[in-house]
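User: Sequence recovery, please. Input:
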């Protein structure tokens, strides 16, 4: 366990018990109706509520017991700390998660720079022999590097999810659980405060859907880019159609549209985060969260720049940098903010199960 886990759990338990007695915020988001099922909160219950929380902050701006009241409630920060701790405890190996979240910007920049230098050196010593980007780095070389860098981190995520599932009381998954959870995730309903008027993330006591829309742009942009990579893989191996691909092909259509959405969503999220109150979140990991957003923007922006520079002398440097950002993303996946998507979806599935008990 993390050295401060008992203290985090105890403080979150104290605040949740006060909230459960008050119930003024009962209709705000999924956390509060879920909270009312319990009279006492085990550690697993608190971890579940923490990952169900989307940090919309509406409860804090509506609460009569925030400081300077003697109860000193700060539910968004308390649950953010427990949520962060749950990722750090469960994902394997745990020490790497804490290191990235607390020093993420430095770790990310150093890793991207090192990988970029590696690919530049690789191109200088053993250039590829194919067409397009494969003229700079051979296809088999890319597969040999990226396949383990993508698959092995997923093992760390899977271990973390199994541990989290056990701690929070997850059961055998039914189709209804998946339908409800994926429907909520697709709409990002909880980022609208649960009441459809928006959340209070960056505007204090005013509602706004800006954060939900920015998250949607980032999420759907990322999924489109993943679809572009998947389409290119299928075309290469099943249709014997290697890159480069024309502008009308699925890899290009999905990749360009996804890249634009990722850049817009990432810049928007970063601006909102700069305007939000850091005391209503896990302050110690602010840098790691911002580093993750910056990395996603760099991936998309370098990919778009690389496409625009096709046929010019800038391709080797841009390709090395783009590969550096993508490989850094894969390697850091279990310990970066990316892991929140896996845990949040698990929390939504478990919540669907708990509703039916």
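Assistant: Recovered sequence (357 residues):
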């Amino acid at each position: 366990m993390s050295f401060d886990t008992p203290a985090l759990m105890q403080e979150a338990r104290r605040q949740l018990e006060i909230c459960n007695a008050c119930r003024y915020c009962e209709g705000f988001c999924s956390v509060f109706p879920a909270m009312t099922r319990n009279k006492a909160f085990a550690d697993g219950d608190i971890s579940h509520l923490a990952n169900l929380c989307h940090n919309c902050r509406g409860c804090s701006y509506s609460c009569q017991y925030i400081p300077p009241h003697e109860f000193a409630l700060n539910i968004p920060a308390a649950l953010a700390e427990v949520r962060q701790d749950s990722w750090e405890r469960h994902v394997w190996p745990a020490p790497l998660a804490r290191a990235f979240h607390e020093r993420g910007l430095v770790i990310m920049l150093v890793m991207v720079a090192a990988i970029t230098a590696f690919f530049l050196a690789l191109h200088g010593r053993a250039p590829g022999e194919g067409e397009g980007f494969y003229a700079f780095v051979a296809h088999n070389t890319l597969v040999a590097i990226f396949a383990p860098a993508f698959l092995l981190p997923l093992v760390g995520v899977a271990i973390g999810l199994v541990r989290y599932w056990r701690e929070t009381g997850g059961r055998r998954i039914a189709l209804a659980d998946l339908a409800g959870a994926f429907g909520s995730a697709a709409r990002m309903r909880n980022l609208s405060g649960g009441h459809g008027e928006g959340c209070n993330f960056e505007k204090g006591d005013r509602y706004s859907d800006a954060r939900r829309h920015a998250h949607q742009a980032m999420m759907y942009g990322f999924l489109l880019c993943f679809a572009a990579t998947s389409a290119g893989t299928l075309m290469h191996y099943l249709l014997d159609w290697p890159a480069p691909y024309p502008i009308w092909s699925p890899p290009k259509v999905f990749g360009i549209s996804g890249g634009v959405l990722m850049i817009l969503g990432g810049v928007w999220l970063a601006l909102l985060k700069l305007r939000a109150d850091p005391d209503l979140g896990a302050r110690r990991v602010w840098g790691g969260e911002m580093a993750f957003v910056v990395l996603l923007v760099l991936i998309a922006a370098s990919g778009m720049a690389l496409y625009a520079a096709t046929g010019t002398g800038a391709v080797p440097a841009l390709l090395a940098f783009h590969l550096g950002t993508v490989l850094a993303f894969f390697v850091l996946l279990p310990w970066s903010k990316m892991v929140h998507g896996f845990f949040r979806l698990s929390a939504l599935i478990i919540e669907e199960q708990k509703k039916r008990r």
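Residues 11 and 78 are 7 Å apart (CA to CA).
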